Amino acid sequence: MAYRIGIVGVTGAVGQELLALMAKRNFPVAELRPLASARSAGSKVTYGGKEWTVQEAKPEAFEGLDFAIFSAGGSISLALAPEAVKRGCIVIDNSSAYRMFPDVPLVIPEINAHHLANHKGIIANPNCSTAIALMGLYPLHQAFGLTRFFASTYQAVSGTGAEAMRELDAQARAWAKGETLAPKVYPHTINFNLIPQVDSFLEDGYTKEEMKMLNEGRKIMDLPGLKVTTTCVRVPVFRAHSIAISAEFERPVDIALARKAISAFPGAELCDDPANKKYPMPLDYAGKEKCGVGRLRKDTLFDNGISLWVSGDQLWKGAALNAIQIAEALHAQGRLARK
Amino acid sequence: MAYRIGIVGVTGAVGQELLALMAKRNFPVAELRPLASARSAGSKVTYGGKEWTVQEAKPEAFEGLDFAIFSAGGSISLALAPEAVKRGCIVIDNSSAYRMFPDVPLVIPEINAHHLANHKGIIANPNCSTAIALMGLYPLHQAFGLTRFFASTYQAVSGTGAEAMRELDAQARAWAKGETLAPKVYPHTINFNLIPQVDSFLEDGYTKEEMKMLNEGRKIMDLPGLKVTTTCVRVPVFRAHSIAISAEFERPVDIALARKAISAFPGAELCDDPANKKYPMPLDYAGKEKCGVGRLRKDTLFDNGISLWVSGDQLWKGAALNAIQIAEALHAQGRLARK
Fold first, then answer.
1. A198 and A281: one domain?
2. Which of A193, A212, B20, B115 could potentially form a cystine with B283 if both were Cys, beta carbons 3.0 to 4.6 Å apart?
3. Of the candidates B307, B152, B130, which has an alpha carbon nearest to the alpha carbon of residue A235?
């Protein structure tokens, strides 16, 4: 069994990682159909020792595909995902467009692969910070019963895309030459700075990104009463996100048990040896499939609370890897091939 | 009235800022006695158009001084502050050595200048993250009654000292040349990375730095029942610290009132216009006396809660400026001259 796969946004940062990870994980590919804007159509993508021609992403391009992974932003997903589904092509969507639709499963396979049973053609891939945070929080939820948590994010520029990664790179090089480069992707300089804005602002003063942790966390973990406050901050780091979390649980917590729960969880790697200055850091967790979880300690504010620190590759667990894991889970459940 | 002033650690990052700020604020200086290790003795410091010779910091060096500001680390303060006091010299100590001593006032002049009345010769200058966080929290406490808060810090390398600032600079320059420079000051690379460790670890998994926010916050604001959880993280930023805070209050909160309280507070500048992408950022608050407070919004976890974001110059409000403000407050209270 091998699949005919569309990749929408193949030239972007996530698209490139998708190809690399599919190869690394020996995903069974019968046909790769790279899809992008009309501008990129005709260019070539190498995969599995073969060249595949980039085609324009338009409704007919999805004919005959088993599934497609969309990583080209919300408006492209809104326009084309229904067209793909209409043509019998399952959509795994990296954008935020469909995540909160009641009939769209929002899936992190280590947590809620069972939600895939209810899909109607579109499956949403979660927000990157949420996916990475839950690699630390979900095993603790299983052990102690999560009720609420605070999260402060330290988000890499990869979350904005390849252009933002080039902007940080260019600003850093300009700085070394004693020059300054005006920001284009971000509203402010990101090199040696922090921008406490990720995504756009809502009326209530939160950014959309900050509300994703709450809304997506509730949906993925089936916890409608979960309470969350998040502050999202862009930091001068290339591609792994980190999150400082303080969480409250229903039952009394135990740090030794918490460590065991993290170690046993497939999406997490326990990295928690303060005496030897070992804790997760973005430079160490860029290019790793598992997210690093460390700094585990009893929370000094909540009664049944744990504080922790998580780092994980935004382009991988935060995007491309989770999307492939969704495809793998669908495959394992026998739900991936065209009817 | 002009003072005979000792500066211990005059060659360090904070020492240099002390001189610059004393000049900027026209502090009345009769004699400047720069004090440093024996190694630096004999070198010259220019202040007020005059050259002053650096002397070795030893007990006799404090004879005849009105007051001395110590910025040379805890062990120097422990060894020499009592010697200075014995000689009639008031000590304003930047280290953490005396902060929690019951007979040592720990002072942020905008908050608790009245604690200076009880000093026995040593006055402690607070931890940098605590001082900067309280520029946002204290006016909210006055308005609504603070009960507990979460803080995640984004701490600049200046907090470690001049050598750490040079390390980030050198790592960034090496990176631009395609080279890597092994870390010396920090246990890990800081450029394009995050280090979730500031100061050393305690038995319970917290760092000393993380407990300062709790212990010093309680003492400065006279709130013995205050609950705090902090995660402290070093970020690749040169000299302003930032802190994401979610705080709970006794009384119902109102964001318009919160903004007014921040605007009216002398240590803070309201910088909170998300629609125009205005919020505090470290690049904007390096070299500013006031700390920037923004991202004010009703907290989605606490019932009477506010989330906020503060940036402030670590070397200024986090160290040198607050120390000078303590001297100015003592002067205003008529407590600074030798008896």
1. yes
2. A193
3. B152
Domain that holds residue A325: 3-126+319-332
Residue B152 and residue B93 share a domain: no
- As given in the structure block, the two tokens for residue A56 are 């324009």
Residues B146 and B164 in one domain: yes
Q: Record the pTM.
A: 0.97
Q: Is A282 on the interface with B (CB under 8 A)?
A: yes
- Complex ipTM more than 0.90, yes or no: yes
Is A241 catalytic? The answer is: yes
Measured between alpha carbons, how far is A213 from A155 in angstroms, rounded to an integer?
13
Q: Are residues A160 and A287 in the same domain?
A: yes
Residue A122 corresponds to which tokens in the numbers above?
């579109």
Residue window 298-337, chain B: list those with CB within 8 Å of chain A.
298-302, 305, 307, 309, 311
Q: Is B120 helix (H, G, I), strand (E, B) or coil?
A: coil
B310 DSSP β-pair partners: B243, B293
Q: How many domains does chain A have?
A: 2
Residues B113 and B335: their CA atoms lie apart, in Å, by 12
Residues contacting residue B45 through CB under 8 Å, at least 6 positions apart = B10, B19, B32, B34, B51, B52, B53, B54
Query: CATH number, domain at B76?
Result: 3.40.50.720
Integer Cα distance of B198 and B203 in angstroms: 15
Which of A 123-142 lie inside 8 A of B, CB atoms? none
pLDDT per residue over A50-95, tens digit each?
999 999 999 999 999 999 999 999 999 999 999 999 999 999 999 9
A280 touches chain B (CB under 8 A): yes
Cα dist from B241 to B230, B278, B282, whole Å: 14, 17, 7
Q: Which residues contact B333 (CB under 8 A, 6 or more apart)?
A: B113, B116, B117
Smallest CA–CA distance, residue B256 to chain A, in Å, is 12
Helix (H) or strand (E) holding B85: helix B74-86
Query: Cβ separation of A205 and B231 shorter than 8 Å?
Result: no
- Find out whether B191 and B236 touch, Cβ atoms under 8 Å: yes
pLDDT digits (tens, 9 = 90+) for A258-295: 999 999 999 999 999 999 999 999 999 999 999 999 99
Strands (E), chain B: 3-8, 29-36, 44-47, 50-53, 55-56, 67-70, 90-93, 122-124, 146-154, 227-231, 240-249, 268-270, 291-298, 305-313
Which has the closest alpha carbon to A106: A337, A338, A322? A322
